[in-house]
């Protein structure tokens, strides 16, 4: 059977990820395996999450589990929260409920970009490329700043061409944990405005913010939507709830988008989500939004895990980026070879994510969503195979 070119391109773009997924089958049946690969939970779900779902499980009307689009109470709750959290006058009609950040990103790509358009994505960064290929869009990678992994505005400008339609910014950033400053985002906004004027075509910014509420050391967060009007925001509850299997997120329009253009975008959201295969969260998850807004993983405990691993691995000679946000730890692989390093750890029952899945073969990522006991069990192997 002949695959579509779209399917073939998406498969090739995500091949490093799928290959690693398949390799994880080696963990099956092994006792005392320490899985530090993905941001999955390793403890029982948050009581607040369970309570919110339980409170809405019993039907209150015949249509309780009927087809749902973006429910008003969920959108109203989110808009009010964004007004406080980001200081932006977001309105409920600016919010579209989606199946996690995946759904919001897919919606954003199709809302403002056409087949053949280019989308500038950060490197190392999350798995945008296969989603773009599946939408007949062209990923163009722009490296983050060497060593610091800060946002490199000049690299983004160099990546822009007449076909550029969207620039993606992920802060706090996966996999690096960097949180970009307001000054850097203002510089980016100035550059995008100039590039849009020069090219005669509006360049949009997609602000990928699923880790927005997971930050350390009192570090402030600025959304690009506060700096550049032509911004779309995607968010996922799966991170702050540590429940990625419960698909709940949203796409929000910056309220600074001029009214006429924002009205067009609002009107396009519902039919586009329907056309994408009814891309709305399940009814139960939407009912739970008002209660879930105040539910969070233990950020103090997460900070302790970060500090413990940064100190222990630093003493072992690892070169690390101290994460300002997210629940990941990003470091240089000993010898610059992530594949060999990850394989050696796996022989000891410790699984970490190689930087190859982020097009960065000289690095690795550890998920801090593991329990403290799991992290302690991993440390001997990490020390033994470390650069020290």
UniProtKB/TrEMBL annotation:
It comes from the Bacteria. InterPro entries: Aminotransferase_I/II_large (IPR004839), NHTrfase_class1_PyrdxlP-BS (IPR004838), PyrdxlP-dep_Trfase (IPR015424), PyrdxlP-dep_Trfase_major (IPR015421). Gene3D superfamilies: Type I PLP-dependent aspartate aminotransferase-like (Major domain) (3.40.640.10). Signal peptide: none annotated. Keywords: Aminotransferase, Transferase. Its cofactor is pyridoxal 5'-phosphate. GO terms for molecular function: pyridoxal phosphate binding; transaminase activity. Residues 32-381 form the Aminotransferase class I/classII large domain. It holds the Pfam family Aminotran_1_2. This is Aminotransferase.
